[in-house]
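Dear support,

I submitted the protein below through the web form. The confirmation email said the job was done, but the results page showed an empty box. After a refresh the structure appeared. I'm attaching both so you can tell me whether what I see now is the final result or a partial one.
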Amino acid sequence: MRMANGTARRLTAVAAEGVASGTPYMVGTKLLQGWLTATGVPLGLIGLLAYAELPYTLKMLWAPALDRWPIPWPDRRRGWLLLLQLLLVGVIGAMSLLRPGPEPAKLTAIGVMALLLAVVSATQDIVVDAYRTDLLPEAERGAGAAATNLGYRAAMLAIGAGGFIVAGRTGWPLAFLGSAVLMLLVVPFTLTAPQLPPIQHQVSSLRQAMVGPAREFLHRTGRGRAAMLLALVLLYRWPDGLLNVMAVPFLIQKGFSPELVGSVLAGWGIGATILGTILGGILFGRLGMNRSLWIFALVGAAGNLAYWALARFDGGPTALLMAVGLENIGGGLVGAAFVALLMSLCNPRFSATQYALLSGVYALSRSLLSGQAGFVAEGVGWSSFFLLTVASSLPAFLLMLWLTPWNGDGAKGAFDPARDPT
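What the results page shows now:
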């Protein structure tokens, strides 16, 4: 019973931090976009808000500072979480005082606040990932990834649906104040979350915080295996990236109405993702790391294959529901296993920096490796394109033959506390 209670406390804590991650991101993107649109700001200027999201891409640059200078109370991760969450409450609350309009002074104020929100939010994401990595034992990492994802999506629904309802009924400032209150509600969970165990050799210099993560990773894995592990991180979710960037254009060109596409992706799709995430957390604990990576990737590839069938055989709304459902269930499964893989590769001494670096490598598959998807689809047609997205899973499977064999119990190169020389 004691173990069950401990597990429940840890999963509740990481779910709450998932809410904390999702809330400011949704405020700085969807909610702010809605307010600017409603007040007549030109679309071209609204589009410039995308540049305010750069901190989420560049966060690895200042992640070493969080390993080097921990705030010790309540522990080395939650100290930063408390500070950043209180800052986010203040920033989101202050945004309710903005008065959007096309005037340069108003646009400048909005841009500054959006950038400030993104910097603090991205920094919080670094610490949330590090806290989850340091807190969860290996057997709970799949469930922890699922709990984080559920918290994040709960925030998406609360801000993306509830925030807009509040804005429509009582005005946009109150929607931002409500979002600040949601952020504030996370603070008691952070205060009462489980304590992290101490580490014997704390990072003692900024140089060590910057150089140490890469040096430790290379020393632990060897250069050849490190390259293969980074390739697996880059390629494991590549099929997702290729499909996601082209799913909506395909469905619209297929003749489905925008209203149907939006409702299926936003309602049915999110529900299927939540189901896949829950299943991923449950199955991961039973299957273990390696078998979960294999089976979940196969289900993910099946989701891409469902889009091929939709393109090839001209299915109607029922086929659309099946394809979107299978794709999103697979996405939830793949996401749970992938986050668990990233956590397993991090040493607690450097988890903030190592996780940020690994997630940055993964981000390249969503941008750099998927950026040409539209040109490929134009060149080969939709049916062949979706077959190619299925084929894009093969490099990851080849890497898993060596790094995460079916009968193995963890990735070759994963951090093992028992072998940590520190």
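Response: this is the final, complete result; the empty box was a page-load delay. DSSP finds 18 helices and no strands in the chain.
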